[in-house]
Specification:
12 helices; Rossmann fold; 434 Repressor (Amino-terminal Domain); DNA-binding; alpha/beta; homodimer; six-stranded mixed beta sheet; 3 domains
Chain lengths: ~325, ~325
Amino acid sequence: MKDIAEHLGLSQTTVSHVLTGKHRKFRISPATVERVWRLAEKLGYRANVMARAFRERRSYAVCLAVEDLQNPFWAGIAIGAEREAEEHGYALVVTDLGGSAERLRRALQLVRDQRVDGLIVSPVRGSDAELAAAHRHGLPLVQVDRAVARLPVACVRTDHEAGSVLAVRHLLTRGRRDVVYVGGPLDIPNYRQRLAGFRKELRRHRLQPAAELILDDPSPAEAERAVARVLRDVQRPLALFAANYALTVGTLRAIRAASRAVPDDVELVGFDDIQMADLLLYPVTTVDQDVSSIGREAVRLLLDAIRTGRRSAQHVLLPPRLIPR
Amino acid sequence: MKDIAEHLGLSQTTVSHVLTGKHRKFRISPATVERVWRLAEKLGYRANVMARAFRERRSYAVCLAVEDLQNPFWAGIAIGAEREAEEHGYALVVTDLGGSAERLRRALQLVRDQRVDGLIVSPVRGSDAELAAAHRHGLPLVQVDRAVARLPVACVRTDHEAGSVLAVRHLLTRGRRDVVYVGGPLDIPNYRQRLAGFRKELRRHRLQPAAELILDDPSPAEAERAVARVLRDVQRPLALFAANYALTVGTLRAIRAASRAVPDDVELVGFDDIQMADLLLYPVTTVDQDVSSIGREAVRLLLDAIRTGRRSAQHVLLPPRLIPR
DNA sequence: ATGAAAGCGCTAACAA
DNA sequence: TTGTTAGCGCTTTCAT
């Protein structure tokens, strides 16, 4: 900027005004604007991001803290978020929480250190208080996939309830009447909503669930044990609805261990899509989430919050999609 | 720092010396050091990362540019890299290249804009010249998984050749004698090395390959077509070795389409591990890479290059591991 | 419509 | 062993 100013016999201030697009506000003459632009172009001027960040106290970076990057669901969100951030000139710092509140604390540290201007996060267990505190301190925050209860912070996620409805409707269409729900603990809103959709759609058809497996620990191992028990006790044909990826895996293992025939004897729908599903032992219909859009929309909301200073508590629900198999 | 200095009747410089750990170098008295530390602690002093970055012309962030974040291989590398970076006080900016040289150019822009101090990258096709140029300009660079030929830049990857040897040896142990190689184009060193290991181990046993499928486009679809042809032409029992994840998927599809019996009739080993492999239609033995270590080691090398200014061209080869199934 | 000047928080060359 | 001073590149307030 100094160079350009000297070459043009202008002040650095004026150059700054032009180069940051504030020439309207400062009523810089079109001729000057043009001259500055030309020379900047010719000299290959690039703003020093660090200097600007330092001065403005903004880093032009945001952080995405996901639960588990190895899960294609989260990886997809990261990809969408990165694309969107890049298009707005923001860098995306990705953090893998691995379910640990301690690692979330570190992510919040990033913000306090001004390394990032805002945070997109999927609340892990035991992080509610911290997130609430961060929000009170004015940190621009957007939640994805999950939302902390009674926290007025924006959230972008799939319409879980609608997903369950899709799943159940699919099973009913195939003539199933005995449907089992396999889900996680109800203190997690996600699972509450998925269960609600499940119940709602069954009730609409005046049916009772064959069973509702509410697992404290929504891991493949737990799902396998619980489903195995049901398959042992109930010998008539069954339909199963597993409320997420891990539970679907466990359910599949239980089905295999019980040597039940799919889809004639038991049939399965799982939340979250599965890569190479066609190569699986059994056909699994899935409720696919639009992961990329979740990421993009979260970034959009966050940047909006950063720029306007407004703290929207809007919840954006994206529709799921059934992939029958 | 100013506050601390005033409270203690010291100069800001001295405080800086202490707080940045340079008190030995400047022979600050232990008493002073102690006083500064105490007060900093009490005041909850945290260095302004932006100010430091601005002044030192370093961002204390590095960028990891991966081929495809949805692939568990790359996601695993990202996780390892992030952990290691964090432990050194560095932030990790993750970029998904999606195989596009254009997006790599953007990543290089990040460096030129000083938003990151260095780059870990898996070279995509058509990016060789750009990476070479970046390296000439002195950009701290580390390659992962792949290396640009004749570019004196460090690289961290699995010992592909050793992986192939493991795979072939496994198949031979199972009594197979007719082994087919399914791999990608030989202008990519990865595939050259995997093929080399394959040939080497066969030769050691004085065997000829049953076939070598060298695909220009290493996609599942191409692999499926090529393998289908072989399965049609060769009716005797076969062993297949697929040189990466995508090729393994295609090969599996071909096997299914041909209705060959696994493992009695045909048997498969694939490079790169597969999640939920136990739930696949067929058992697939895999050559697993230590992805997390690749990420960690890459960051270590990069930070070393950044700190020392040395540009090592060291290639770190990590041993693969066979997961028999 | 343009410019002067101050200052963001920190580091480092140099002085004492 | 500690302090003085300058300056990194930019934005912004206030003059003109």
